[in-house]
Design brief:
CATH class of the largest domain: Alpha Beta
Number of strands: 10
CATH superfamily of the largest domain: Response regulator
Number of helices: 8
Shape: elongated
Helix content: 25-40%
Low-confidence stretches: none
Radius of gyration: 19 Å
Number of domains: 2
Largest sheet: 5 strands, parallel
CATH topology of the largest domain: Rossmann fold
CATH architecture of the largest domain: 3-Layer(aba) Sandwich
Mean pLDDT: 86
Strand content: 15-25%
Order of helices and strands: EHEHEHEHEHEEEHHHEE
Distance between the termini: 24 Å
């Protein structure tokens, strides 16, 4: 992997010592790194470069990391965000996830753990390889056949309903791409059903294809944008 091919990270922290340490360590681990001292500098960097992930301090003067993340998601920016904070209570973590963060690491932290979490997020965010139309889609131990609507490898009681099969087929045709609720409803031929109906159908489908529907691995929510299917072994 050349430097140009290495994942490009944006590290945002108002503490210059932390910026220097993280920049040096992550560079040694094979990443390209750009640093910013606050949200304003981060916005300038985001306007100039495409980043694969943001390592973002929560508590900064001016616009906080939470506010910046929420703003990015509202603008349709789905770059992964790993938040760093000295406030590591469950309520703080929930607040971060509600604003659109992908992971949360309390300070102080081991740089090795930070690096592992970054790599995990990048693997999860990597687009799925395109499959030929109608080709089976692997979802862990399950295999979905879009042409027949059949979910193989599942408990017989977990057979997909026609609506669930149509939803999964629509997502599979655009695997790795975010589909809005309106696009999904249109693909299902039910644009009048509304976004809430799509959410209900997604919840039902997750119960049949996800190891843990509360922590979706394959059918993921992209805050403020919609849903994306990420097939995988």
């Amino acid at each position: 992997m050349t430097d140009r091919d290495a994942p490009h990270l944006l590290v945002v922290d108002d503490d210059s010592r932390i910026r220097t340490l993280l920049s040096r360590y992550l560079y040694e681990q094979g990443f390209r790194v750009t640093v910013a001292e606050d949200a304003a500098a981060a916005r300038r960097a985001l306007a100039a470069f495409a980043f694969d992930l943001i390592v973002l301090d929560v508590m900064m003067p001016g616009e906080s990391g939470l506010e910046l993340t929420e703003s990015l998601r509202r603008d349709g920016r789905d770059v992964p965000v790993l938040m760093l904070t000295a406030a590591g209570s469950p309520d703080d973590r929930v607040a971060g996830f509600e604003r659109g963060a992908d992971d949360y690491l309390p300070k102080p932290f081991d740089p090795r753990e930070l690096c592992l979490r970054i790599r995990t997020i990048l693997r999860r965010a990597a687009p799925a390889p395109a499959a030929p139309p109608g080709a089976p889609v692997q979802l862990g131990p399950l295999r979905f056949h879009p042409d027949t609507g059949e979910l193989r490898g599942a408990d017989p009681s977990q057979r997909l309903t026609p609506g669930e099969a149509a939803l999964l087929a629509a997502l599979a045709r655009r695997a790795g791409e975010v589909m809005s609720r309106k696009e999904i409803a249109a693909a299902l031929g039910t644009p009048e059903a509304g976004e809430r109906a799509v959410d209900v159908q997604v919840t039902r489908l997750r119960r049949k294809i996800e190891p843990d529907p509360r922590e979706p691995r394959f059918l993921q929510t992209v805050r403020h944008r919609g849903y994306v299917l990420r097939p995988g072994p």
